Q: What sequence folds into this?
């Protein structure tokens, strides 16, 4: 770690020397509207905070300077930024021609500004027509361009504009791995792409705990409670203006019928925006007691409003991007955001062609709470961007180079640009220990933490949160991007809700426990929970012998006996989440008592606890120790002593192990006759001791049609942690709509 930090400092020093020891990078940030300023402001604050490296010039144009849209340039002044130039570039009009004329007007005015400023680099955000004018001017005037949020996919003309800016830009800052891959596929130079995350997330992830009730009261009224109001933000779709106006009309009708307090924001400056405002006034929205219609809400306050809303509705990118950080339900209407990566909090209504359809979506989503999602950022974007800016060598040729196929492998790491490894936080709740690990996409355990598992619920949950926070912080240092948290625990688990329904006797005070909500709220990450046996099966499916196998069973042989069943590549949970309780298959009607209260279960014969019980009986009768064995007086008798005694020729110990192996083998035969897998994987510390006995029982007792099944010992060192990680890595909340 120290080596890489020193290497990074040395590279920055070399770049400073190349650029001239006293030369500061002159950065021009041009902002066109309230939306792009929310992404650019964190970068501007970062640049301003390092005057030894940067000089900042701010250019304001577009809708910032229009009264109808709230004169939002004032919030830039309130943030204590000096505005170097104000350019009035919006041509009033209600059709597509007005947008074209606005681009033309900006192209006429910008050259004079850029000639005076002479920036080393211009930062351009997003996909608006104003941004296209900025990028075109800078490119033609040989000014380097850093494009924020390139490579993403959405609907409308914005998609084409975004990709056009990508081709003009020299450097790219993207928010997701998919966006990075899109940029590479567009032949952009991999060395000039930074996967940083969205800059607005740097503010979002630290915002939720601030005083929000006063903000809600100010914008919606003092009688409004959290989770009991709606935020609506809808823009015209410039490729189908008529349909988008009709959809907005239906949305307002549905909101009126739904009868909840609603904050409606005015749309962006686009062809069709005036018509949408007329629809609002026609329906009396500005004077309706349930509605508050506003031109602009400061970003700090806006994120508090959406964080505590019962729902957000519309077609703004904010709904599918930023709102996921809070788990607020979102209804995405129409095609404007088609192709965006979204979290599970987003419900898409692509054909929003009836009021009833939108109303039904409101009824489904309002008041829900989803896991927080970090698809678009982890709160560390700005430091990465500043580091990227410092690495730019102004003496390098300005002419862009395109990397035509074959492209570079995007899995390789570039420490200077912090291209992180996609990883998961894995938590294993055992009867004795509590373990947390950072696990990479390839199944490598990058970092592991182990503590004794506390006896009480409160202490256990507090320790889980503490260890997860510590691991998440360390992930940045070891170059890992955490996608979510996977938890493996004993007992019966409802994985849909993330709740431990009831646990084994090995873990006390662990019934009816909601694990997902507190951990997701604390870490702003999605959380998955499942039974430890199921997790072992998932680990084998992703990293072990089960990879590519359609039907297989995993049996864990440890303190207890558990397992998981994979059928047609899918894990089976059962109607009450009790499937694959393989340790409680009964193999004898009058066998020893099991911890579950029954008799004759596999676990009562073959588990570590069962072997320890038999070892104690032999020891109490002075029948355990044989020549070559010794025990200290205070040493606790364990299953390991029984196994050692059997290896040294203790016939009684051998008989107990033979009985245990037979019981496990009979259980496996029952499994073969029930689900007919093609592979049985034995996992856990006792697997090697049982594998031959299980094969012998199958040969003696199983039907001939299943005797050919493969029985193997797992080669995974930590199946519980790897299985918990695979919950995240296989089911991360990324859905392409």
A:
């Amino acid at each position: 770690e120290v080596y890489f930090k020193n290497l990074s400092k040395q590279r920055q020093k070399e770049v400073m020397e190349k650029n001239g020891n006293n030369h500061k990078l002159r950065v021009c940030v041009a902002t066109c509207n309230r939306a792009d300023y929310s992404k650019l402001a964190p970068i501007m604050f970062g640049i301003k905070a390092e005057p030894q490296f940067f000089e900042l010039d701010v250019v304001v144009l577009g809708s910032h300077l229009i009264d109808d849209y709230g004169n939002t340039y004032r919030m830039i002044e309130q943030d204590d930024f000096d505005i170097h130039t104000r350019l009035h570039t919006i041509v009033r009009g209600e059709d597509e021609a007005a947008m074209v004329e606005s681009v033309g007007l900006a192209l006429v005015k910008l050259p004079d500004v850029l000639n005076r400023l002479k920036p080393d680099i211009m930062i351009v955000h997003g996909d608006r027509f104003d941004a296209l004018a900025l990028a075109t001017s800078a490119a033609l005037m040989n000014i380097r361009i850093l494009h924020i949020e390139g490579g993403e996919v959405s609907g409308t003309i914005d998609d084409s504009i975004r990709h056009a800016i990508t081709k003009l830009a020299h450097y790219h800052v993207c928010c997701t791995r998919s966006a990075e891959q899109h940029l590479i596929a567009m032949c952009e130079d991999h060395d000039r792409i930074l996967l940083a995350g969205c800059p607005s997330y740097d503010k979002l992830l630290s915002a939720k705990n601030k005083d929000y009730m006063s903000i809600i009261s100010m914008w919606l009224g003092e009688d409004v409670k959290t989770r009991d109001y709606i935020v609506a933000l809808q823009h015209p779709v410039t490729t189908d203006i008529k349909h988008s106006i009709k959809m907005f009309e239906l949305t307002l009708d549905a909101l009126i019928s739904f009868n909840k307090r609603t904050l409606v924001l005015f749309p962006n400056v686009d062809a069709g925006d005036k018509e949408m405002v007329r629809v609002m006034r026609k329906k009396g929205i500005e004077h309706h007691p349930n509605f508050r219609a506003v031109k602009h809400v400061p970003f700090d306050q806006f994120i508090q409003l959406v964080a505590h809303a019962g729902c957000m509705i519309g077609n703004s990118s904010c709904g599918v991007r930023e709102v996921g950080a809070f788990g607020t339900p979102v209804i995405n209407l129409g095609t404007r955001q088609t192709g965006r990566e979204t979290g599970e909090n987003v419900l898409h209504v692509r054909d929003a062609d009836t009021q009833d359809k939108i109303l039904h979506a409101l009824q489904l989503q309002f008041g829900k709470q989803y896991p927080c999602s970090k698809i678009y950022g982890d709160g560390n974007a700005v430091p990465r961007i500043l580091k990227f800016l410092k690495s730019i060598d102004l003496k390098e040729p300005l002419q862009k180079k395109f990397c035509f196929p074959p492209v570079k492998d995007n899995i390789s790491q570039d420490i200077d640009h912090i291209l992180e490894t996609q990883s998961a936080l894995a938590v294993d709740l055992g009867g004795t220990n509590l373990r947390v690990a950072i696990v990479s996409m390839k199944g490598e355990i990058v970092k592991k933490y182990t503590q004794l598992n506390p006896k009480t619920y409160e202490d256990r949950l507090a320790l889980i949160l503490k260890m997860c926070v510590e691991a998440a912080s360390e992930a940045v240092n070891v170059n890992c991007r955490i996608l979510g948290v996977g938890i493996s625990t004993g007992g019966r688990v409802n994985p849909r809700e993330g709740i431990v329904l009831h646990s084994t006797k090995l873990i006390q005070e662990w019934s009816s426990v909601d694990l997902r909500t507190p951990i997701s709220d604390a870490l702003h990450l999605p959380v998955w929970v499942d039974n430890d046996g199921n997790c072992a099966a998932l680990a084998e499916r992703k990293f072990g012998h089960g990879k590519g196998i359609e039907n297989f069973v995993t049996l864990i042989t440890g303190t207890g006996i558990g397992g998981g069943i994979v059928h047609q590549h899918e894990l089976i949970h059962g109607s009450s989440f009790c499937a694959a309780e393989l340790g409680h298959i009964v193999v004898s009607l009058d066998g020893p008592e099991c911890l579950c209260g029954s008799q004759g279960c596999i676990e009562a014969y073959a588990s570590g606890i069962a072997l320890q019980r038999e070892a104690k009986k032999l020891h109490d009768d002075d029948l355990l120790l044989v020549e070559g064995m010794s025990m200290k007086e205070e040493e606790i008798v364990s299953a390991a002593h029984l196994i050692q005694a059997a290896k040294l020729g203790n016939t009684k110990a051998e008989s107990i192990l033979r009985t245990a192996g037979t019981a496990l083998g009979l259980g496996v035969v029952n499994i073969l006759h029930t689900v007919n897998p093609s592979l049985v994987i034995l996992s856990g510390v006792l697997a090697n001791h049982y594998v031959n006995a299980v094969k012998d029982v199958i040969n003696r007792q199983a039907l001939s049609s299943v005797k050919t099944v493969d029985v193997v010992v797992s080669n995974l060192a930590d199946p519980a942690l790897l299985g918990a990680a695979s919950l995240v890595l296989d089911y991360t909340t990324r859905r392409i709509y």
Q: What stands out?
A: The two ends are 39 Å apart (CA to CA). Confidence is low (pLDDT under 50) at residues 1-5, 407-418, 733-737. The first strand starts at residue 25 and ends at 31. Residues 597 and 635 are 29 Å apart (CA to CA).
